[in-house]
Specification:
binds protoporphyrin IX containing FE
Protein backbone atom coordinates (compact mmCIF):
# COMPACT_ATOMS: atom_id res chain seq x y z
CA UNK A 1 0.00 0.00 0.00
CA UNK A 2 1.31 3.45 -0.79
CA UNK A 3 1.45 6.45 1.51
CA UNK A 4 -1.67 8.03 0.06
CA UNK A 5 -3.75 4.86 0.57
CA UNK A 6 -2.60 4.45 4.18
CA UNK A 7 -3.26 8.12 4.87
CA UNK A 8 -6.80 7.76 3.58
CA UNK A 9 -7.35 4.60 5.60
CA UNK A 10 -6.03 6.48 8.64
CA UNK A 11 -8.43 9.38 8.09
CA UNK A 12 -11.38 7.07 7.37
CA UNK A 13 -10.68 5.14 10.58
CA UNK A 14 -10.54 8.46 12.46
CA UNK A 15 -13.93 9.48 11.06
CA UNK A 16 -15.49 6.12 11.89
CA UNK A 17 -13.93 6.15 15.35
CA UNK A 18 -15.57 9.42 16.40
CA UNK A 19 -18.86 8.54 14.67
CA UNK A 20 -19.19 5.22 16.48
CA UNK A 21 -17.95 6.76 19.71
CA UNK A 22 -20.70 9.39 19.70
CA UNK A 23 -23.33 6.71 19.01
CA UNK A 24 -22.04 4.46 21.81
CA UNK A 25 -21.71 7.40 24.21
CA UNK A 26 -25.35 8.25 23.52
CA UNK A 27 -26.35 4.65 24.25
CA UNK A 28 -24.21 4.72 27.38
CA UNK A 29 -25.84 7.88 28.76
CA UNK A 30 -29.35 6.66 27.94
CA UNK A 31 -28.65 3.16 29.29
CA UNK A 32 -29.40 1.36 26.04
CA UNK A 33 -29.04 -2.43 25.90
CA UNK A 34 -27.56 -2.10 22.39
CA UNK A 35 -24.25 -1.31 24.07
CA UNK A 36 -23.98 -4.93 25.20
CA UNK A 37 -24.11 -6.34 21.68
CA UNK A 38 -21.02 -8.27 20.66
CA UNK A 39 -20.38 -6.34 17.44
CA UNK A 40 -20.80 -3.01 19.24
CA UNK A 41 -18.09 -4.07 21.68
CA UNK A 42 -15.63 -5.42 19.10
CA UNK A 43 -15.85 -3.15 16.05
CA UNK A 44 -14.54 0.02 17.80
CA UNK A 45 -11.39 -1.85 18.87
CA UNK A 46 -10.75 -2.89 15.28
CA UNK A 47 -11.25 0.69 14.02
CA UNK A 48 -9.03 2.22 16.70
CA UNK A 49 -6.32 -0.37 16.00
CA UNK A 50 -6.42 0.48 12.27
CA UNK A 51 -6.24 4.18 13.18
CA UNK A 52 -3.16 3.68 15.36
CA UNK A 53 -1.36 1.17 13.12
CA UNK A 54 -1.84 3.40 10.04
CA UNK A 55 -0.66 6.44 12.02
CA UNK A 56 2.50 4.61 13.12
CA UNK A 57 3.05 3.34 9.54
CA UNK A 58 2.76 6.89 8.17
CA UNK A 59 5.24 8.18 10.77
CA UNK A 60 7.73 5.47 9.82
CA UNK A 61 7.27 6.19 6.10
CA UNK A 62 7.86 9.90 6.74
CA UNK A 63 11.21 9.02 8.37
CA UNK A 64 12.74 11.99 10.21
CA UNK A 65 9.72 14.12 9.34
CA UNK A 66 7.57 11.58 11.17
CA UNK A 67 9.55 11.87 14.41
CA UNK A 68 8.11 15.24 15.30
CA UNK A 69 6.53 16.59 18.50
CA UNK A 70 3.11 16.74 16.82
CA UNK A 71 3.22 12.99 16.10
CA UNK A 72 4.10 12.22 19.73
CA UNK A 73 1.29 14.57 20.80
CA UNK A 74 -1.16 12.58 18.67
CA UNK A 75 -0.04 9.25 20.14
CA UNK A 76 -0.42 10.53 23.71
CA UNK A 77 -3.78 12.16 23.00
CA UNK A 78 -5.08 9.07 21.19
CA UNK A 79 -4.38 7.11 24.38
CA UNK A 80 -6.14 9.85 26.39
CA UNK A 81 -9.12 9.79 24.00
CA UNK A 82 -9.44 6.02 24.39
CA UNK A 83 -8.96 6.19 28.18
CA UNK A 84 -11.53 8.95 28.74
CA UNK A 85 -13.71 7.17 26.19
CA UNK A 86 -13.86 4.04 28.34
CA UNK A 87 -15.15 6.17 31.24
CA UNK A 88 -17.88 7.47 28.92
CA UNK A 89 -18.81 4.02 27.65
CA UNK A 90 -18.06 1.66 30.50
CA UNK A 91 -16.32 2.80 33.66
CA UNK A 92 -18.39 5.89 34.58
CA UNK A 93 -20.80 4.95 37.39
CA UNK A 94 -23.55 7.51 36.74
CA UNK A 95 -25.06 8.78 33.49
CA UNK A 96 -23.80 12.26 34.36
CA UNK A 97 -20.19 11.08 34.76
CA UNK A 98 -20.42 9.18 31.49
CA UNK A 99 -21.91 12.22 29.72
CA UNK A 100 -19.16 14.56 30.96
CA UNK A 101 -16.47 12.03 29.97
CA UNK A 102 -18.06 11.76 26.51
CA UNK A 103 -17.86 15.53 25.99
CA UNK A 104 -14.21 15.58 27.12
CA UNK A 105 -13.36 12.68 24.77
CA UNK A 106 -14.95 14.49 21.81
CA UNK A 107 -12.99 17.65 22.74
CA UNK A 108 -9.73 15.65 22.83
CA UNK A 109 -10.58 14.20 19.42
CA UNK A 110 -11.27 17.68 17.99
CA UNK A 111 -7.91 18.83 19.38
CA UNK A 112 -6.17 15.85 17.69
CA UNK A 113 -7.70 16.77 14.32
CA UNK A 114 -6.19 20.26 14.75
CA UNK A 115 -2.79 18.70 15.57
CA UNK A 116 -3.11 16.52 12.43
CA UNK A 117 -4.01 19.34 10.08
CA UNK A 118 -1.58 21.97 11.40
CA UNK A 119 1.26 19.52 12.16
CA UNK A 120 1.62 21.34 15.45
CA UNK A 121 1.09 20.21 19.09
CA UNK A 122 -0.75 23.52 19.67
CA UNK A 123 -3.48 22.23 17.35
CA UNK A 124 -6.10 24.85 16.40
CA UNK A 125 -4.26 27.40 18.54
CA UNK A 126 -1.08 27.22 16.45
C1 LIG B 1 -7.79 10.23 17.12
C2 LIG B 1 -6.61 10.11 16.59
C3 LIG B 1 -6.19 10.67 15.25
C4 LIG B 1 -6.87 11.48 14.37
C5 LIG B 1 -8.26 12.08 14.48
C6 LIG B 1 -5.98 11.70 13.24
C7 LIG B 1 -6.30 12.46 12.12
C8 LIG B 1 -5.48 12.67 11.04
C9 LIG B 1 -5.82 13.46 9.89
C10 LIG B 1 -7.15 14.20 9.67
C11 LIG B 1 -4.73 13.44 9.05
C12 LIG B 1 -4.58 14.17 7.71
C13 LIG B 1 -3.99 15.54 7.97
C14 LIG B 1 -3.77 16.33 6.70
O1 LIG B 1 -3.07 15.87 5.81
O2 LIG B 1 -4.28 17.45 6.61
C15 LIG B 1 -3.72 12.63 9.68
C16 LIG B 1 -2.48 12.39 9.15
C17 LIG B 1 -1.45 11.75 9.82
N1 LIG B 1 -1.51 11.18 11.08
FE1 LIG B 1 -3.16 11.05 12.24
N2 LIG B 1 -4.79 11.04 13.46
C18 LIG B 1 -4.88 10.40 14.69
C19 LIG B 1 -3.91 9.63 15.29
C20 LIG B 1 -2.61 9.49 14.83
C21 LIG B 1 -1.56 8.80 15.51
C22 LIG B 1 -1.72 8.08 16.86
C23 LIG B 1 -0.43 8.92 14.75
C24 LIG B 1 0.96 8.41 14.97
C25 LIG B 1 1.25 7.29 15.54
C26 LIG B 1 -0.79 9.68 13.58
C27 LIG B 1 0.08 10.02 12.56
C28 LIG B 1 -0.27 10.68 11.40
C29 LIG B 1 0.66 10.95 10.30
C30 LIG B 1 2.13 10.59 10.27
C31 LIG B 1 -0.10 11.62 9.30
C32 LIG B 1 0.39 12.05 7.91
C33 LIG B 1 0.65 13.54 7.83
C34 LIG B 1 0.95 13.97 6.41
O3 LIG B 1 1.11 13.17 5.49
O4 LIG B 1 1.05 15.16 6.20
N3 LIG B 1 -2.12 10.01 13.65
N4 LIG B 1 -4.18 12.18 10.89
Amino acid sequence: MNYFAIKHLHMTAAGLSILFFVIRAYWSVTGSALLQKRAVKIVPHIIDTILLVCGVALSIMLGAAGMQPWVLTKIILLIAYIGVGTIAIKRGKTAKTRGIAAVIAVAIFAYIVGVAINHNPASWFA
